[in-house]
Specification:
The protein is an all-alpha fold. The protein is built from 9 helices and no strands. About 70% of the residues lie in helices and about 0% in strands.
Length: about 190
């Protein structure tokens, strides 16, 4: 005798729709942070090292991080795409960019970035810790994982704070249109 599936009730749909709405609203902030972070680091390091191919600077990147760039180049070439710097930069993962904020890059990268921030970004360790939390949130949303157990109000605050350190005008524009807090407060 074959067992039947349990009936789907409307509360399951409500939870699913709530998750989808919150994830969608957070995704706007994540896009802004991710693209702003990579553009900020790329432009700043291009100026600091005098080349838009700053990753070719001898002994700047670990072999693993340099391999990430090489793999992106190969993937673009295999698909018949250009390997322009802008395509390479936009195809690198958020994990790559967050790694450039880690302790191993404190001298070679973070110290060079400091003069390009519009305001004082505070300690590298705090920026990096918050960026890692954003990366975890991003990956959970992208892979449809559970996010409702996270402290989403804190995550939302981190997204706004770090984006504002990189581009205050963009951060304010996004915050004015954001639905995240309304959705979270209604979810309670």
């Amino acid at each position: 005798m074959r067992k039947s599936s349990p009936p789907i009730n409307s509360s399951n749909y409500e939870s699913f729709l709530l998750f989808a709405e919150i994830a969608s609203a957070l995704w706007v902030h994540i896009i802004a942070f991710e693209t702003t972070l990579r553009n900020f680091i790329h432009q700043s390091l291009s100026h600091a090292y005098g080349s838009s191919k700053w990753w070719l600077t001898e002994k700047l990147l670990t072999s693993k991080d340099f391999d990430d760039i090489r793999k992106v180049q190969e993937r673009l070439e295999n698909k018949g795409n250009s390997t322009k710097d802008s395509l390479i930069i936009s195809n690198l993962s958020l994990s790559f960019w967050v790694e450039l904020l880690s302790k191993r890059y404190h001298q070679k990268i973070w110290k060079r970035l400091l003069k390009y921030f519009p305001t004082d970004p505070g300690r590298r360790e705090e920026f990096h810790r918050k960026a890692r939390e954003i990366r975890r949130l991003r990956n959970s949303i992208a892979h449809h994982g559970p996010i409702l157990r996270r402290n989403l109000i804190r995550d939302h605050a981190y997204l706004h704070e770090l984006t504002a350190l990189l581009d205050p005008i963009l951060a304010d524009a996004i915050q004015k249109r954001s639905r995240v807090l309304d959705l979270l407060l209604n979810a309670r």
